[in-house]
Amino acid sequence: MNGNRPNFWIAVCGTPLCVLLAMAGGWAQSSAPKAPAASAGPKLAEEEFKNIQALKGIPADQVIPSMQFIAASLGVECEFCHVAHANEKDDKKPKVTARRRMRILPRRACERKGRQEAQSHRAQDDRHDDGDQ
Questions:
Q1: How many CA atoms lie within 13 A of 9 on its CB side?
Q2: Positions in the chain whose pLDDT score sits under 50
Q3: pLDDT number for residue 124
Q4: What is the SS3 assignment for the chain?
Q5: Largest CA distance in the chain
Q6: How far is CA 59 from the centre of its chain?
Q7: Contact between 45 and 60 (Cβ < 8 Å)
Q8: Where are the domains of the chain?
Q9: How far apart are CA 37 and CA 109, in angstroms?
Q10: How far apart are CA 124 and CA 93, in angstroms?
Q11: Apex CA 69: angle with CA 67 and CA 73, to 5°?
Q12: What is the pLDDT of residue 80?
């Protein structure tokens, strides 16, 4: 029985010591200083994801919520446009179509806004002309 006593104390003291060392190692890794970011602002979509085209320039943390909004608005799942587990691939026609539309719509919105502003200015000019007479 005396021969087992040293093994018992090794087990009793060694187990908590191992747990303590593992916790200390995990704490040391989590509190290690991080490398400074290359830029002061948030990471952009094209820096985080592969093959970003239509959403270039937006913060990377907004890509997934934006894509979820688009999918919900269209009533489709991600796989409608994206190849499963390979989102960077351009193998599906709806993805190519969506990109094309995302490029066209802002331009059309600007053109429409420009026409509306021009019409508004013309209407204001007409009102001023009527008031001067």
A1: 4
A2: 20, 32, 133
A3: 65
A4: CCCCHHHHHHHHHHHHHHHHHHHHHHHHHHCCCCCCCCCCCCCEHHHHCCCCCCCCCCEHHHHHHHHHHHHHHHCCCHHHCCECCECCCCCCHHHHHHHHHHHHHHHHHHHHHHHHHHHHHHHHHHHHHHHHC
A5: 119
A6: 6
A7: yes
A8: 45-132
A9: 36
A10: 46
A11: 120
A12: 92
Tokens of 67: 């894509």
- The tokens for 90 are 């351009």
The answer to whether 42 touches 60, Cβ cutoff 8 Å, is yes
Distance CA 72, CA 7 (A): 63
86 — phi, psi (to 5°)? Answer: -150, 60
| 81/65 Cα distance (integer angstroms) | 16
